[in-house]
Design goal:
Length: 606
Amino acid sequence: MHVSQTFIPTRREVPADAVIASHRLMFRAGMIRKLANGLFAYLPLGLRAFRKVEQIIREEMDAIGALELKPPVMAPGEIWKESGRWEAMGDAMLRAQNRAGADLVVSPTAEEAFTALVRDELSSYRQLPLLLYQINTKYRDELRPRYGVMRGREFVMKDAYSYHAGEAGLDETYQAMGRAYRRIFKRCGLSVIPVRADSGAMGGSGSEEFMVESVIGDNTLILCNACDYAANVEKAACRPDHPDPAALLPLEPIDTPGVKTIEELCVFLQTTAKDCIKTLIYRVRQAELDLSGAPGCAGLLRRKNAPDAPEVYPEVFVAALIRGDLDINEAKLAGVLKAPEIALAADVDVVRLTGAPVGFAGPVGLRSLPVIADESVSAMTCAVTGALAADRHYRHTAYGRDFSPWMLTDLRTVRAKDRCPVCGGELYEKKGNELGHIFKLGYKYTRSMGVHFLDENGKARVPVMGSYGIGVDRALASVIEEHHDERGIIWPLAVAPYQAVIVPIKYTGPVKATADRLTVELEAQGVETLLDDRDERPGVKFNDADLIGIPYRIVVGDKNLSGGVPKVEFKHRKDTGSQLLEVPKAAETIAGLLRGELTQLRREYT
Ligand SMILES: [Zn+2]
């Protein structure tokens, strides 16, 4: 391909909002242009790289037997109402009405669409498992789209959904998908950190996120400096660090006028946060956890919309306890309660439930709601807590003697310097961006949308479901984040928009003839080649070649063509040194090198 015949508008300047390398370089290399906030057009060079990433994903999906579909981007609002997400998605979902007044959704994800398709076709266990995927456009009305295609409003995702007769089949597909994801990222040249993700509250029993390290990442990862433990902070655990038990002293009420926060308490009582119990009251909606027998929960159980959906508690309150120097991890608490949504209770509810103003809640004598304690509390034998009365606290509170929680579990937010739960090493934090997520979804959609099949005994059953996503734009941008220098992109061969670029010093005479000949020969050998035939100074062409990052560069100049066998200069974008190749053998040598490197890569990832 001749540069003069394609459309690669390179630029020197950078848009003011391009704060990360991939955004800057994709703009400068003429790969993308912004059409509106969060909406990008891929230009020819960008689209070539995009298609390479897409193709790698497609090959690996096909290799594990996944079947590609092409559902519409617009989905009927009806199926989103069935799943219960019409409301839950809020303003992130773009809605429209057609001329007949029917609700439509610009798909932000496709659990509903795939499940609706499967529901209409599924009748027998013999059709299962089903593993389906699409590589398709999505739209999420992000409040603040940023970082180029890394967080755009319109984007392309590969999303796969699997349907199984039982958990064992789901587990098999989930494992195969995890291996496929590792191969995909490896082939793209991406160093990913697989982390145990928060599977949320929706009955998922397995979930893994594939993260890349990124300063602008919106996930906090907890990693171990001694082993490969890696977890999203929402799910991260740590070893307990209980202090030695203190001597038991009689429970003692003390007047604490106007003292409400842990900090004020520490000053007032000359104590440390480690010796206080923090009590927080939460409002919990749609909890699926069995709370029968828990204080304050009798008679609240209701069945969710669909006939065989599980029973839930529309709204309950719980008290969460944790050592004063630690923080409650609300994702963990929501997970324990199997609730999609929890929030701190309003002051009026706190007063009603604790019988005291806000700031004086405590577990001693608290019987109006279930008390859920973090494990840190179980080692506390001489603690300060609220006394359920205005301006009153207890000291010398002992776990097990003065109170016993309804449930003791892990609710702690893990931080850097806590101890690894696996090996005891020191944990540290990193910011990460999610590139992919595999997730055992369970029965959430198949149940709410009424999917059934007949099992071997002719009994109607609900299939179990998995979901598996990769953001294609984000993966491409992440390749550039990982592979660039101050001069431009350094494409890994497998995703490079072109594999070789020929730079004639001056596109005339014997130089032109040689450059043309090499282009024809390389393309005949299957090397995707760009010939810079522009009438520009060599410096401009070299700068552009470095900027757009084509892995192999061949420079054709008068100097090396005259005297003896004509030669050209050959150089890897990633290396500083170059070598001379004899023109008659150059194309074959370069094609051989390319095949070798691609084969090597294939060997590494399989
Ligand atoms: Zn460790």
